Amino acid sequence: MSLPESALPEQDGRQTVPLLQVQDLWVSLDTAHGRTDALRGVNLSLQRGQTLGLIGESGCGKSMTALALMGLLPAGARWRGRMMFDGQDLGSFSEAQWCGLRGRQIAMVFQEPMTALNPLHTIGAQIAEPMRLHLGHGAAQARAEALRLLQRVQLPQAAQRLDAYPHQLSGGQRQRVLIAIALACKPRLLVADEPTTALDVTVQREVLQLIRQLVAEEGMGLLLISHDLGVMAHTVQQLRVMYAGRVVEAGPTAEVFARLAHPYTRGLLAARPLLGRRRDAPRQPLTTIAGRVPQLHEMPPGCSFAPRCSRAQAACSAALPSLSPVEPVGPAGPLEQVGQEGQRGGQVGPHVGRDVGQHAGRNAGRDVGQHAGRNVGRVSVGHEEHQAQHHEVACFFAHRSQPTPQPQPQPHPPAPQTAPALAQPHRS
After folding, report:
1. In whole angstroms, what is the distance from residue 184 CA to residue 220 CA?
2. What 3-state class would DSSP assign to 138?
3. Residue 154: pLDDT above 90?
4. d(CA 112, CA 306)
């Protein structure tokens, strides 16, 4: 049986306090249709040095969750629940305390670098600003440190870029500048909101590698937000699938992709373009999820995904299902194919490897292997280290139609201790 996320032991037997713990977070906004809920009971937990991903369609509440953690909710927004950071209750923070926390302890890489950067200030001045505010650096010291950070994020011609303005840089260069700003005060938690949006495949891969490397070197926690399954597959250890302001599936990344227990998770995986199709292969229409994410004022009763779900039953609309544990699967599963099919550049097949092949090219499988073992199959749940872990989903019935995968026992390195997952049971 796995330990609760809030009570993971250290080597000396003492309990550790999670770096980040969110319990039953609700956020409501003033809209033209009245006050509506944008987040509905979100629960997250992140240990020091751990990586956690939030995935889902636009409008599912991923960025709203990040803004709540940063104390940057829109004007008029109200929230309830509990947000704890390193043992501190963020609900009791004044605005002055939030200003001392943002940038110093929690930093964020925003989704669009062109709008996140100030067009009237040079790159060097914007990187130096948090160090002057939080660390008390003088102008010369802050500028020297800004240069070091630009070199660390591998920005070409870093010395010359210090006096450049945002519009003089490319999209990938601006994203590196945002990462440098976020790392300026050595925060303990890095929140990256769609850090590879609008970047080409090569730059996207470089940015992700850079983030992984810096997080590992600094030992900070990482909360990564993305809609890209391939990015999540080889970047984060834990995964939360969000839909309509709620977490509908959660667990270790390998376990979530191996199980695909919730119909929404299955739909996300299936609704991807297929690359590397053989010329003689039959052409098939792109799989889609019918409908759209409901507007805040249009939330249906019961399960919010029921109107779009091909497996919905009457009970799904009667009451909101709660999260329940799902038993681990065997060592084989869709994520196992990432390392194999990623090397082939994304061949056709019902596996995550297509996405990784699409976004990282022929070497994606090797990258995933470096992240989780030479073959992701080696870290697929089902081995001794993972038998005690649980996987949470909103509807556990979906896995019943899956064929039982054949075990492929292979050695793999010890996995980091992770928290149990929950799911919403389907009422049959």
Report:
1. 13
2. coil
3. no
4. 32
Which of 309, 245, 198 shows the shortest CA–CA distance to 68?
A: 245
SS3 110: coil
Looking at residue 129, its amino acid is: E
Instruction: Please give the Cα distance from 379 to 408 (Å, whole number).
Output: 11
Question: Of 328, 324, 326, which Cα lies nearest the Cα of 386?
Answer: 328
Q: CB-hemisphere CA count at 13 Å for 70?
A: 24
Residue 43, SS3 per DSSP: strand
Q: What are phi and psi of 346, to 5 degrees?
A: 90, 60
**CA–CA dist 254, 239 (Å, integer):** 9
CB-CB contact of 267 with 276 (8 Å): no
Amino acid at 426: H
Place of tokens 């969750």: 65
Q: Using one digit for the tens of pLDDT, what is the confidence trace for 160-184?
A: 999 999 999 998 899 999 999 999 9
Q: What per-residue confidence (pLDDT) applies to 264?
A: 93
Question: Which of the two residues, 134 and 399, has the higher pLDDT score?
Answer: 134
Question: Side chain identity at 291, as an amino acid letter?
Answer: G
Closest to 184 measured CA to CA, from 239, 128, 125: 128
pLDDT of residue 118: 95
DSSP E strands in 147-237: the ranges are 189-193, 221-226
The pTM (predicted TM-score) of the whole model is 0.75
Report the alpha-carbon distance of residue 387 to residue 209 in Å, rounded: 30
Question: What is d(CA 57, CA 77) in angstroms, rounded to the nearest whole number?
Answer: 22
